[in-house]
Write a structure and sequence with these properties.
Blueprint lengths: L2 H22 L9 H21 L4 H12 L11 H25 L1 H11 L14 H18 L3 H18 L7 H7 L6 H7 L4 H4 L9 H5 L10 H4 L15 H6 L12 H7 L1
Protein name: Sterol desaturase family protein
Membrane topology: Multi-pass membrane protein
InterPro entries: Fatty_acid_hydroxylase (IPR006694), Sterol_desaturase/TMEM195 (IPR051689)
Length: 275
């Protein structure tokens, strides 16, 4: 089975499982209809896949295979046990994604791309693939460079990519986990409640909980926030400047990075705050 087919199989299986769990145990009521949001988010996913296929494709895996054949990278020049390089490679890739996420919140140019992800007015598993295609391509280039420098094995790259896709569906899910289970899981993994804080309109909360799979990086690097200040039922999701559903269509999202930000005057959430 090819790398693409395997990743698609895992993605579909996790998508169906998480979607069924969301339906059975929802965490929050929806602001928008599922059909509209899923249409937009799936549309972005389609554009992202097309952009990758027309440009870099499976470049991270390709680089892993090439680096292994050429003996490139730190792990390929060290005599370390295979299991140790595999674990270290996976952890370093996950840490790198955490650092990339923080960088995309700090650097204005990168934020213009990443804010597309934060314009979602609801949060469910479809939010896990609501990314601008240019952000996806930059992320892929970043991973290619890391794989080349570290010499991460092709198998580890394949496992990591599949894990990252599955984790994005899970931690964006509108899923109500038992509180004790959530508290236990988030010592190691990013749970839906933990990541939901990151999608709050409150900037201090938006700039927290950057992890996608392993939660330890947020705890170790000082970006962990346990709960949203308004609670999971009372919090507002999205960005203050983008609270109008009629301005968040598919092509509008694609063009957002190239346009001036929405004015505060047009934002009904802030207008309400002034009354």
């Amino acid at each position: 089975m090819s790398e693409t087919a395997l990743r698609l199989l895992i993605f579909v299986a996790v998508f169906v499982l998480v979607a069924l769990c969301e339906h059975a145990w929802p965490r929050r009521p929806r602001r928008q209809t599922r059909a509209r949001r899923w249409g937009i988010n799936l549309g972005l996913l389609g554009i992202d896949i097309l952009a990758q296929r027309l440009t870099l494709g499976a470049a991270a895996l390709g680089m892993a295979l090439y680096a292994q054949a050429q003996g490139w990278g730190l792990f390929n020049v060290q005599s370390l046990p295979v299991w140790l390089t595999a674990v270290a490679g996976f952890l370093l890739l996950d840490l790198a994604i955490y650092l990339q996420h923080r960088l995309f919140h700090v650097v204005p140019l990168f934020w213009r791309l990443h804010l597309v992800h934060h314009t979602d007015l609801d949060l469910d598993l479809s939010s896990g693939f609501r990314f601008h295609p240019l952000e996806i391509l930059l992320s892929l280039l970043y991973k290619v460079a890391l794989v080349a420098v570290l010499g991460i094995s092709p198998l580890v790259v394949l496992v990591f990519e599949a894990t990252l896709s599955a984790a994005a569906l899970f931690n964006h899910a509108n899923l109500r986990l038992p509180l004790r289970l959530d508290a236990w899981l988030r010592w190691l993994l990013v749970t839906p409640d933990m990541h939901r804080v990151h999608h709050s309109v409150i900037p201090a909360e938006t700039n927290s909980n950057y992890g996608f799979f392993i939660s330890l990086w947020d705890r170790l690097l000082g970006s962990y926030r346990e709960q949203p200040s308004a609670g999971h039922q009372g919090m507002t999701i999205g960005l203050h400047e983008y609270q109008r559903e009629d301005r968040l269509g598919l092509m509008q999202l694609v063009l957002i990075p190239f346009r001036a930000p929405e004015s505060e005057v047009s934002n009904p959430a802030r207008s309400e705050d002034r009354r």
